[in-house]
Specification:
A six-stranded antiparallel beta sheet has the order 3-4-5-11-6-9, with no helix packed on it. Strands 8-7-10 form a three-stranded antiparallel beta sheet, with no helix packed on it. The chain has a two-stranded antiparallel ribbon with strand order 1-2. By secondary structure, the protein is mainly beta. The chain is globular and about 55 Å long. The chain has two helices and eleven strands; from the N terminus they run βββββααββββββ. GO terms for molecular function: isomerase activity.
Amino acid sequence: MPKIADPCAVRRVVTGHDATGRSVIVNDAPSPFVLRTTATGPVVTDLWKTFHSPADNRSADEPCSDISLAPPPGGSVFRVVQFPPDAGYMDGWDEHAAFAAMGHDLAGAATRKGKTVGMHTTASVDYAIVLKGEIWAVMDEGETLLTAGDVLVQRGTSHGWSNRTAEAATVAFVLLDALPLAARG
């Protein structure tokens, strides 16, 4: 089965202040916060987290640690996800194990599952920016093709991702904690 060979390291440049208050680069290295969801599945790289809004720039502590699907309560997460081609992993992909690795329970996903594996919902507003390749955003009803440069605003809906090409797709995400979207019925 093809998989993402070695995930491209995502360079993370972080700014801060020196002892005199002058702006400086405090970190310039690949992000060490990488999770391969399964042996052949998507690769998640977290770049930064905030734990409330407004964010607190006073701390010099590293905000990232364990990778979780949803942002912290009242906070945000900035990440890059590499999606391998569906043909390389979807048939044998254990979506429950993959999401459990990110602290998300897919209980009931079978009843929500639309046209793709990995349908999920988080109480967040997600800004998805396609950096490379193309990927389908799949909803319970309908789907749309996104290509490099396209942006999707996901508002707490059940959704999934489908890469129907032969190349990996790379998508940057900013997830903001949000109140759940009220279901309309």
